[in-house]
Amino acid sequence: MKTQAINIHSHGGPEVLLAEEVNIPAPVQDEIRVRVHAVGVNFIDVYHRTGLYPVQLPATLGLEGAGVVEAVGDEVQGLAVGDRVGYCTGALGAYAGCRLLKSNKAVRLPDDVSFEQAAAVLLKGMTAEYLIRRVRPTHVGDVVLFHAIAGGVGLIACQWLKQLGAVVIGTVGSEEKAELARAHGCDHVIFYGREDVAAAVRKLTDGAGVSVAYDSVGATTFEGTLNALSQRGMFVSFGNASGPVAPVAPALLAQKGSLFFTRPTLMNYCGMPEELRASADALFFALRTGVKINIGSTLPLSQAAKAHRALESRQTIGSTILLPD
């Protein structure tokens, strides 16, 4: 069957995103075909587009979305035509009106989660889940630094960290984002464009620093993040919005206080079907118990390039979703 998809034939800026008609075949074996109702836009899509994370070309971008199963392969178990599903850890292909997907990469959506909410929250929410519950389990009283706290992952993580009893220090780039962060429970806001992040953190913590710092910004925040950590603190690097971090000498971690440094990915923490389901279940429970989803922008799928420009220029607040035309 034919559908519209946003494809790239070369790496580059948003201009390489092309709306094209593609053919989606019938699913075979353990595949399902999903009629897409909403698509999530994430910074990893930018990395795939630019080639920072190389992909085989041509490619249909996107990892996150939600829709209805409209056909299944003969080996599919546990899913049927008509089921509402979401996904964020499978192969590329979410920027489309219809797509194929391995059935074990889909999670069934609860009735109280809409397609738009699922597309806005699955990848970001499950990223928050593995970061704050498994990479470094959060304990009551932990003081945490989270960069880009008003972004898609940040707003979810902030609320969830507060549920777990943490004190949250977040960085933002504008007064508008600071206000949004505070409204979602952020205890202390630092403006990374005009403040020394490490110095501000030390002042807020009486010189102790934070036990864990989550940094998706990358190159421009690396040094400040490192200097904001307490002795034996953990640096969790999970993105490169400002560019990749330069190689780190292990001796530097010793000099700064026997620090821990890790670069986890969602695919490694939700790669097994049981991990994927457990993470999704934890996220859905968090939503039912107070974590709110912030959909900052909704655009037609054909305007994917506009969504990428806004994301890269840090103009976005909360999650951005695309709706198939």
UniProtKB/TrEMBL annotation:
SMART domains: PKS_ER. The keyword Transcription does not apply. The keyword Heme does not apply. InterPro entries: ADH-like_C, ADH-like_N, ER, GroES-like_sf, NAD(P)-bd_dom_sf, QOR-like. Keywords: NADP, Oxidoreductase. Residues 12-322 form the Enoyl reductase (ER) domain. Pfam families: ADH_N, ADH_zinc_N. PANTHER family: QUINONE OXIDOREDUCTASE PIG3-RELATED (PTHR48106), QUINONE OXIDOREDUCTASE-RELATED (PTHR48106:SF13). This is Quinone oxidoreductase.
